[in-house]
Design a protein that fits this description.
The complex is a heterodimer of chains A (567) and B (81). Chain A has 567 residues and is of the alpha+beta class. Chain A is built from 22 helices and 17 strands. The longest helix of chain A is centred in the last third of the chain and has 22 residues. Chain B has a single domain, classed as Beta-grasp domain (Ubiquitin-like (UB roll), Roll). The longest helix of chain B has 7 residues. The chains are: A alpha+beta (567), B alpha+beta (81).
């Protein structure tokens, strides 16, 4: 990965630059954040021409290490007003790596009356008129495949992103060609949309820029790491069989499952939306459904799934825990078929299911539609699709919707909706929501696996503070967070496999230090963007209103929260 | 003493067919004064397979002392996405 591609949509110029020395040892999130820090005016408008989007595979991107090809995208977020990185599995990281592209920077904004897509293969890079503009992501992806064949990888946005909705994400295609692997968070789809870029088509045919410093040693160590992943009870057994939906029974048990707009931590229908039930439904129905499915090439965990209807036809893939929590229990909906349908609608519109689940939850709480009414929720998404005034409001996410509807119970941190862990039940994640440069984000430092009482406020700041750099390590190497249960305690081995890939000698401790440094870059960006410790907090309803069953409030003291970003 | 136990997902399979019913529920006889850890050992489960313990609806630790009639739920470790 020896070049950085810069696409200026104002001028239409596409240039290839050598990788500057300071970027060589950065990848994924650390790289997108450093480039944004170096190139952006942090006070710029997120939906203005001065904002940029940066796509980057991780340091291990394109390698055959399991779970190592996540793609990161960074930009200034229209939701948080701060720096943002979102990442996903899929095929884009592998395609960029094969094409030798370490980072792809999208800047400026198009003055053309039509939107465009970027086409990249080993010989050319071109902006082309997007006759797919306005289409949902499934139709758009199909047309691109018809044009370029099924070997290309696609990064694309839906109508939500094209209209600049703050709830819009950016998706990329999976191994079978589904445009379902979302870099969902932070509204970065809107940043891409307002620039006038509908899609990026990566055609790696004939491009083989991936090289190993010591392929034999890499293969040997890879064998050992794969064995560790397979023998770990989480990565070898629980994830492959039940996937992330298995979280629902756990969060329900500790009163942390978002329920009816975060008004309760447990849901009476939790056992109809959890991993065991999902497994039962998929295996009973047969047909196109799959309980064990890889989100990226070469993953040995395969935690994903394909959800099929009673006739065996695919409805959506994947159906993940966050969507189940936000568009299921959080809406009072206890039926996987309903959740899968809502998930598909959001995917097609190019919207983040976490943000939209929280948004519809707020709307239900304010009496716009009743809790539990999946048809009415689908009608709200139809408003978004039609771009009605109500649809525009909803498309801008939970905070905007809550304000318009007069809610004082809006589950956001730094303007971004909370994922499926009520911070009154898992207070360590509450600390992460409040203090991460990313806003409310479960992937920015998840404490759920720590062996502590998750409602005891005392140990939580330390847990979050240690978890945040671990997330940065994974996000920067392109690693899925899910291999961390097996490999997180073996950072030296990760450092070694990186050395065999790149030739660069680092230690596990070096990785940790680099992660802390990258977090500081994000914090400094946010400071310059105008975010302050005053925003390192959760909504007052979560500190004031006890959850009904547990009686828990979010009571980690503000001064403890502020300390996290002081050092 | 007798405690009521509910095992979830892979733990149900680990403890073995026939011991727990379809919902993962079984009754387990333990010596008085036993802890959750003793219970886990009595099931033949490796401790690393247990990531979350609930006793009578509240989160508990391995060292928690059990009493007659307690209701225990065990989960393997997991994080969402």
């Amino acid at each position: 990965m020896d070049k950085i591609i810069r696409v200026n949509l104002t001028s239409g110029a596409i240039t290839s630059e050598p990788v500057a020395e300071k970027y060589r040892q950065l990848g994924g999130r650390a790289l997108t954040s450093q480039i944004l820090f170096d190139e952006l005016d942090p006070a710029c408008e997120p939906l203005g021409k001065r904002n940029k989007l940066v796509f980057a595979p991780g340091l291990l991107g394109g390698s055959f290490l399991s779970s190592s090809s996540r793609i990161s995208v960074g930009g200034k977020s229209p939701l948080t007003g701060g720096i943002k990185e979102a990442n996903a599995g899929g095929t884009a990281a592998g395609a960029l790596s094969k094409l030798g592209i370490k980072a792809l920077i999208i800047e400026g904004e198009s003055n053309l009356e039509y939107s465009q897509y970027l086409y990249v293969d080993k010989e050319k890079m071109e902006l082309r008129p997007a006759d797919i503009a306005g289409l949902g992501v499934y139709s758009a992806a199909k047309l691109i495949y018809e044009r370029y064949g099924d070997k290309v990888s696609q990064i694309l946005i839906g109508p939500g992103g094209e209209r600049g909705y703050s709830a819009a994400g950016i998706t990329n295609t999976d191994v079978q060609g589904r445009p379902c692997r979302y870099m969902g968070r932070g509204g970065l789809g809107a940043v891409m949309g307002v620039k006038g870029l509908k899609a990026i088509v990566l055609n790696p045919a004939g491009a083989e820029a991936i090289s190993y410093h010591d392929r034999k040693a890499f293969q040997e160590l890879n064998k050992e790491l794969v064995k560790m992943i397979r023998e770990n009870p989480v990565t070898g057994e629980a994830y492959p069989k039940y996937g992330t939906p298995a979280m629902a029974t756990r969060t329900n048990a500790i009163n942390a499952l978002p329920t009816r707009n975060f008004s309760a931590g447990s849901f009476e229908c939790a056992n109809r939306i959890d991993g065991e039930y999902l497994y039962h439904v998929i295996t009973t129905r047969g047909g196109e459904g799959e309980t064990t499915h890889a989100c990226m090439p070469g993953c040995v965990i395969k935690c994903s799934n394909i959800y099929a209807a009673s006739d065996g036809k695919e409805v959506v893939a994947p159906l993940e825990y966050e969507t189940i929590g936000l568009m299921g229990s959080n809406l009072g909906i206890g039926n996987l078929d309903d959740i899968a349908r809502l998930n598909y609608l959001c995917n097609d519109l190019g919207l983040d299911t976490i943000e939209m689940g929280a948004t519809i939850g707020v709307a239900m709480d304010q009496g716009l539609i009743p809790f539990g009414d999946a048809d009415a929720a689908a009608d709200l998404l139809a408003e978004v699709a039609e771009d009605s005034i109500l649809g525009k409001v909803l498309g801008h996410g939970a905070l905007v919707t809550g304000r318009v509807l007069g809610s004082r119970r809006i589950p956001v941190a730094k303007g971004q909706a909370m994922p499926a862990y009520d911070p009154r039940g898992i207070k360590g994640l509450g600390v992460t929501y409040a203090t991460s440069p990313m806003g409310a984000d479960h992937t920015a430092g998840n404490t759920i696996r720590a062996e502590v009482d998750h409602t005891d406020p005392k140990p939580q700041p330390e847990l979050s503070k240690n978890a945040q750099p671990m997330s940065m390590i994974a996000d920067s190497m392109g690693l899925c967070l899910f291999i961390m249960p097996a490999l997180g305690a073996h950072l030296d081995k990760l450092a070694l496999i990186y050395e065999y890939y790149s030739g660069v000698k680092v230690s596990g401790e070096d990785l940790r230090e680099a992660a802390k440094k990258a977090l500081n870059v994000e914090r400094e960006f946010n400071r310059r963007a105008g975010l302050s410790p005053a925003q390192d907090r959760l909504p007052e309803f979560m500190t004031d209103e006890p959850l009904p069953v547990s009686g828990s409030v979010f009571d980690v003291p503000l001064e403890e929260l502020r300390k996290i970003n002081e050092e | 003493m007798l405690i009521k136990l509910r095992l979830h997902d892979i733990l149900k399979e680990k403890v073995g067919a026939g011991r727990a019913d379809g919902d993962g529920i079984l009754k387990q006889q333990l010596r008085d004064g036993s802890t959750v850890n003793d219970l886990v050992v009595s099931l033949g489960l490796n401790r690393e397979y247990v990531g979350l313990i609930i006793v009578n609806g509240r989160q508990a630790a391995f060292e928690f002392s059990l009493n007659e009639g307690d209701s225990v739920e065990l989960f393997s470790p997991m994080s969402g996405g």
